[in-house]
Amino acid sequence: MPKPKLRRKTVVRCEVCGGAQARIRRITRTYGAGKDLLVIENVPVVSCPACGERYMTAHTLHEIERLKRHRRRLAAGRKVGVVNFAA
Question: Which of 46, 52, 5 is nearest to 24 (CA)?
Answer without folding.
Answer: 46
